[in-house]
Amino acid sequence: MVEDALARGLLTAVFALTAAWFTGHGIRGGSWADRVCDAFHVVMSLSMVAMAWPWGTAVPVIPQVVVFAAASVWFVLMAVLPPDRPSRHREHSDRGAWLPWLHVVMMVAMVWMLLAMPALHGATAAAGPLTVLSGVAVLVLLVSGTVLSVTATVPVVTGGQGGSRLPWHAAHVAMGAGMVAMVAPLLVT
Asked: Which stretches are transmembrane (predicted)?
């Protein structure tokens, strides 16, 4: 849960927008694999909204862990399979092989947050070193992936390549930044 009301409102807005955008992206088309990717992003965004609010603690943890663990495996497959098998949107491969791994990191971060948040609420010292160290690793990977997302977005904006790819890149930047904003406070409390 996010304690600060302004931060909670901003994060809710960010993740509600990414949920809406990925829903629209999935509806507009693409292969079945694209739709699975988009569906996982929608579920992740909605789960992040819930995590920001006090009522989010009532959402069962285990089903979410199962979904995000499955999503992690899915995105590992997307990272190691050739870009055309199964066929995917061009955005998934137009900025390098790192992007599917960012999705893996985001989904693993969801699993980590769901499992670590009960221990981390209250005092980081009570959580144990493994929880904190794994959280730091997750945070470093999230920050790195978000920076890569920003660097992939800049040429789209400055090079006049915008078009339909700009919102796609912006959605990934927003998701990464939002996740960093929710993971970092867990580690410094």
From this structure: 6-24, 61-81, 101-120, 132-157, 169-188
